[in-house]
Structures are given as structure tokens and as C-alpha cells.
Amino acid sequence: MKGNVIKYARDNIDTDVIIPGQYLKVHDYAELAKHAMEGLDPDFHSKVKEGDFILSGRNFGCGSSREHAPIALTHSGIKAVLALSFARIFYRNAVDGAFLLPIEIDQDAYSDIAEGDQIDIDLKSNQINNLTKNKTYKMKPFSDIIGKIIEAGGLFKYKPD
Amino acid sequence: MGKTLFEKIWDAHVVVEKENSPSLIYIDRHLVHEVTSPQAFDGLRMNNRKVRRPDLTIATMDHNVPTNNRGLPILDQTSSVQIQTLEKNCKDFGIKLFDINSPNQGIVHVIGPQLGITLPGTTIVCGDSHTSTHGAFGALAFGIGTSEVEHVLASQTLWLEKPKPFEIKVEGKRKNPHAVTAKDIILSIIKNIGTSGGNGTVIEYRGEGISDLSMEQRMTICNMSIEGGARAGLIAPDEKTFEYLRGRQYTPKNYEFLVDYWRENLKTDSDAKFEKNYTLHIDNIAPQVSWGTNPGMTIDVTESVPSPEDFAKGDQNQKKGAEKALEYMNIKSGTPITEIKIDRVFIGSCTNARLEDLIEASKVVKDRKVSPNVKAMVVPGSQMVKKQAEELGLDKIFIDANFEWRESGCSMCLGMNPDILSPGERCASTSNRNFEGRQGTGGRTHLVSPVMAAAAAIFGHFVDVREMDLN
What we know:
The complex is a heterodimer of chains A (161) and B (471).
Chain A: E1 2-8, H1 15-18, H2 29-34, H3 44-47, E2 53-56, H4 68-74, E3 80-83, H5 88-96, E4 101-104, H6 107-112, E5 118-122, E6 127-130, E7 135-138, H7 144-152
Parallel strand pairs in A: 1-2, 2-3, 3-4
Antiparallel strand pairs in A: 1-5, 5-6, 6-7
Chain B: H1 5-13, E1 14-16, E2 23-26, E3 29-32, H2 38-46, E4 57-60, H3 77-93, E5 96-98, H4 108-114, E6 123-126, E7 140-143, H5 146-155, E8 157-160, E9 164-171, H6 182-193, E10 201-206, H7 208-211, H8 215-223, E11 232-234, H9 239-245, H10 255-265, E12 276-281, E13 288-290, E14 298-300, H11 308-312, H12 316-329, E15 344-347, H13 355-365, E16 375-378, H14 383-391, H15 394-400, E17 403-405, E18 426-429, E19 444-447, H16 450-459
Parallel strand pairs in B: 3-4, 3-6, 4-5, 6-7, 9-10, 9-12, 10-11, 15-16, 15-18, 16-17, 18-19
Antiparallel strand pairs in B: 1-2, 2-8, 13-14
């Protein structure tokens, strides 16, 4: 999975800035995507490209249980969010709906990867390769449980072993 | 080894459990509202599925309903469509709905307990993060996303990764319980454990400081568990819990039998182990006011806004977050909280819009007037709360003081209906989130208790309500 990084170097990016409440009435996902990250970065929609990644700090996606948050990011083209940690409802929503991959990274990757860097995420070896800086970082592997739901393609497709 | 209350409820609801796999958990109650359910019902239709247990599913409309002129058509087209969609979905799938004209309408987390739908020892889910509120009754209650709503509608179960139990002890006695409230306890907890301190856990609140609280106050505590990052928060049921639920509209017929069972079983064993522990001593805590853009950015009313350095304690991200928050909130470090002037006051939300909240706030407001520079409103948590408050004459007290007295709904807590802040407006709010834009684009939110909000409305700035006579 290769793409460029959009970096928000802060903690606690909440679901109200990912998709403000007034858009929870919008059911057209393409329209919803136009307002992704609007509460924090009004330029997001013009700069995001298909296949991009978001990189951020701790507790990404805290707040409301709105699934509109991972939906808006996914329909903007975001394939994965890399963060130091995630709020659990956002994490579950991202995985259960098979919208985007929530990837936990360490401080090293967080500090080193910059806005615009091209990275390649290798889920088999749990490595992130920074193609711009020619460096490699470890990502935290998905737990067995989460891995199984991701592999199945979401909650509805998951079947117990 | 003994078990925690959370583990007992979990174990009683396991349908399938295997090591290193998700657990399939049975859901006892599913609460549904207009915003996070439409796609879930669409999904059912697409796959030709029914609602598995319509009798365990209850719906109401709260997030985007107007709080005034209920007799008129809803002007906002998209809100109107969402409301009509819920009506149609409930009709098509045979789900009980408390619609906009029902005397039982209200914020879903206010009506559940009021109607006796929320019960100890049950699992409760809703497509709303503040579902943790119901934990006050010793239920395992948590918010879910729309895909999960669809899964519960279809199967009455959910695949879950088992959270870890987190013990939060609240010790001591508040010196002035009218001025220092449950809201101040939970804001103090979040300030200390941080907004992600509870990640991956279910909190059990314990200790004298919790058992002293009324049921409505306990709901305020559990409601904000999610702001500390926890999936859920719960409190072991006691005689106050059983008394609160006795004789309500949907309380089960075999209630006393259930009470005997709950009394015996719904408690943490003395030798149970928690994964995490935190203790808050409340003898000397002050009323709390948030200054920043997440609920962890909170200080005592007697303090001044911190500098980013002091707040961050060496953490670069925290420092950046604080700088950004000060800029957004347009306040300077070193400003005493009591010098912060406000434009709006919102007494409402699933955190603090129950009858006791309104009674306490009315004591501050009685025989006084809202500051001429402030616009203030009370939005009762449910139509039932509104009616009870009106029977006590509280509406008159608020209206005489120039507060607006509205119909129930989520209202200005999340800015989905016309009740929003204008850009730059500063609000003392009894709600649960002070995120950027939460109450309207560019709006600035300070989280406080109902008495603190009421006092701010009267004086036009924050005051220490311990200095007022609230008895």
C-alpha cells in the first residue's frame, strides 16, 4: 500500500472536526467527503488524493460514535490513518465497516515521517517504508481479533473459525 | 479469583467465546435515533433481513429535532427527511418509536432510565457514544457505529474484543454538594486521567463519593466516561438504583424478583482484580471550568488559564494542542477563569438536563435576571423532565429571569438543529464536549455544571458558586 502522507502533528483529533455535526444529515458519501476534516483543515478536500494516508498523534478519532468520520475520510481517498493511538469507537468503526486501516505507530515513525513523504505500508511484515527518506519503521501489528475482521472485509463478512 | 461487576455482566452475555477471537455478545436493549440508523435500516433492506428482536429495540428522535415551535413543519429539509426516515423505518420493521409529539420523546439517554427500559445487569447499545450514561444503573452500556447498529438490528448480538476493567475510586465528601456537583467530579477525573486514560477499558466508579450520589448525578458521571476514552462506565446498583426504577412505565412485572437477584449478584467480588486503578479525593475539589478544546483541558474556577508549557508538562504534542486551543478559544494564559465573559448559556444535553439539574440551576436563577449581554436557554432532557419541571414551576423561574424555555432534544450540545453558536460566541455549557466547532462553527465552549452555567448567565462571567447561597 503506497501513498503520500498528510500530517496533523497533534493529539486528540476528534470526530467533530473530522466531520462536523451539521453534515451528519448528509447521506451522499461523495458530498460527505467534501467536508472531511473541515473543522480542522478547510484545505483538506483540495489537497487530498486517492491513496493518501493521514498521520497524527494520540487518541485519534475521540468523541462521537459517528461512522460518518471514517466514511468521510475513506471517500476522500484516505486508505489508512497512522497514529500514536486511537479512540476505540473510531477504531472499531474503521475496521467493522472495512473503511480504512487504523495503524498504530511508534514515536520514531511519528516524529520522522513528514507531510508529503511517500510511504509504503507492508502489512505482512508490519513495516512502514519511507520511500522519500529511505527509512523503515515498525508498525504495531493488528491483534488476532482485529486482524480476522480486517481479513474478512468487515463485521458482516466475519465468520468464526 | 473473583470477578469485577463488568466481567460478571460480560460472562452472562457471551454467546461464543474463543481465545484470540472476537467474542459474540448478546445485546439486551438497542436504542435507536434518527442520525446513526438510516444506513443500518437500508442495509437490512438490501440484504432482505428483518429486525431480530423489535421488542428489545426502542427508537426516539433527539439529535436534530427543533426545540421550539414544535407545531410547525421542520424548516431544515435534511433534518425533516431524517426524522421521516426514522418514522418509516420503525413502521416497516415494527419498532416502538417515541416520535416528536410523544410525551415520552427526549434525549435517548434521558428517556431510557425514565421509562424503566434501562435495567441493571443488562447490555445496552445505541449508535451514540454517550450510551455509557446507562452504566449508572449497573448496565454494560456503550456506543456503537452504524455498521454495528445494523449488526445488532439483524442479530441482536455484536462481535467484541473484551475491554479491561478500570477501577476509579471516588473518596471523601464534598463540603458543599449544591455547589460542587457530579459534573465537577467527572471533569476532575478526566482532567487527571486524560482524554485517552480510559482507552480499551470499562470503568467501574466506586467509593463513598459515588454511593453518596443520586441516580441522576450518577448518570452525569457515567455519561462522560467516553470523554476519558473509556468504552463504558458503570456503577454497581444499590437501593437507590432499585428505588429509582420501581414502578416505571416499562419496568418488568417480576421486578422484585429481579431486584433480589441483582442485589445478590451485581457487585465486584472483594478479591477481583482491576487492570488499572485511579483514586480521586473530593473533600476539597472546586467547581470545574474547561478552558480549552477537549474535556481534559479543565481547571478549578479559582485558577487562571494555564500556559501551554505548564499544561503540557514537557510533552510537545500537548503543548501544541494547548497553543492551538488558546488561539481557538481566544483567551490568554494567566486570565483568571472568573474574568472570562460569556455570550451564551446552554443548560441541556444528556449529561445535565435532568430534573435535579434544573432544580439546582433554578436556585441560582430565582429572583434574578440574566445579564443583559447574555442569551441563555434551558433545554430539558426529555418532555417528561419538562413536564415535571413545569409542575414545580421551574419554567416560570427561568422565563422570569429571561432564559428561553425549550422543548427537549440534543440541541446546542452538538449543533445539528438550529440551536447553534455564531462564530466567535462564547458559551457556558452543561454539555459534554468542548471540541472546536462542536456547538456551531467557530463557537467556543466552556464545560461547567448546571449551577455554574446558571450563575454565569446571571453575572455574565464565571463565578465560584460556592460563594452563593444555594440551599
